[in-house]
Every structure is written in structure tokens, then in C-alpha cells.
Amino acid sequence: MKHPELAAVGLATLAVVGCAVTRENQSSCKASAAVVGVLVGGGAAGAGVGIGTDDAAAGAGAGAGGAVLGGVVGYLLGNHFCQVPETPPPPPPPPPPPPGKKKVELSADTYFDFNKSTLKPDGKGIIDAEVVAPMKEHRELRALVEGHTDSIGSESYNQRLSERRANAVRDYLVSRGIEASRITTKGWGESKPIASNETKEGQAKNRRVEITEE
Length: 214
Description:
Strand content: 5-15%
Strand order of the largest sheet: 1-4-2-3
Order of helices and strands: HHHEHHEHEHE
Shape: elongated
Number of helices: 7
């Protein structure tokens, strides 16, 4: 054989390509490629020279050279074929969507002192659970606080009372750590009833503060 080195390289290449089928274990694959390259390269080169010259010494020398060459080729090709593509990390989970628009209604008779704008402890508890907590968790939320009254008394007095109650809720939210810039207040007086002002039950329903988170 005139070019045993080429035979060694060719055989080592075939050996590495076969090894690449099991390239999940990179370290074993690379080591196997180098060993196979040594054995195949050495055997092929030695046999080729020995057959061509009938010289055992020359065959042994060629075999050693072929082994070195085959080992180097096997190692280099092993680095190439035994590479396992890195799996990209999974994308981070999307952030939870903010809650939809929510309205909290506070009955003035239950959560405010009579004819005043002072919040009762039960009213503060409702606001803490239903308004403060979600607004702290979702910084993009804003609150619209609207005060309403029944039609008893003068229109101007009812207007001022509705504004004071809305402002009382705003002040409490601020005291609980909600920025004033995230709160809008509006007093509607008696102009937006949700029930008839002709009955006591309807009047009680109209005396309210509505907090809308959006």
C-alpha cells in the first residue's frame, strides 16, 4: 500500500462516525474515538507496509506511526462528532396577569359612623383585604373612590358628605402604604342612587362608598 497514512485516517474517520451514534456520553465517545483511531490506524498502516515490502521491521514502524496518526485523528474527529448540542434553558414563566376590574362597595350605615365620614374598624378591615392587598401586589392598579348619599337633607350637604367619605377612604389607603397618585376620589352626593329614595331600605342602599380597582 503506497499511502498507509491515508488508510489509517480513513479508517479512523469511519470508526469515529460510528461512535457518533452513541455520542450522548461525550467523554466515553471521545475516549473510544481515540482508542479506535490508535488501533485501526496502527493496524492498517502496519499491515499495508508489511504486505507491500514483506519487511516486518518496516511494518512495525509504519504501524507505530499509523497508531499515532490514527489516535490524533480519532481524538480530533471525536471532539467534532461527539459534541452534543446544548439544550437552551426553558423560557421563564410569564408573570401572572393583573386582576380584572373589581368593585368594592362599602355600606355607609355599616362602615361609617352615622352622618359622618369616620371609617369604622370593620370598614378598615374590608379595605385592607379587598383593596390594599391587591394594590400592593399589583403596582399597576389604581383605585377610584366614589362617595354617594341618599336624598335626605340638602343637596349641597349631601355633596360635601359624599366627598368627605371618599377622601376618608383615600386617606386610609395612603396610611396603609398606597401612593396618593394611584387614588382618585369623587363625590356624587345624591345624584347616582341605586335604589329608590322613597323607602328606608332604598335610602340605606344609596348611602355607600364604591371603590373600583382598575
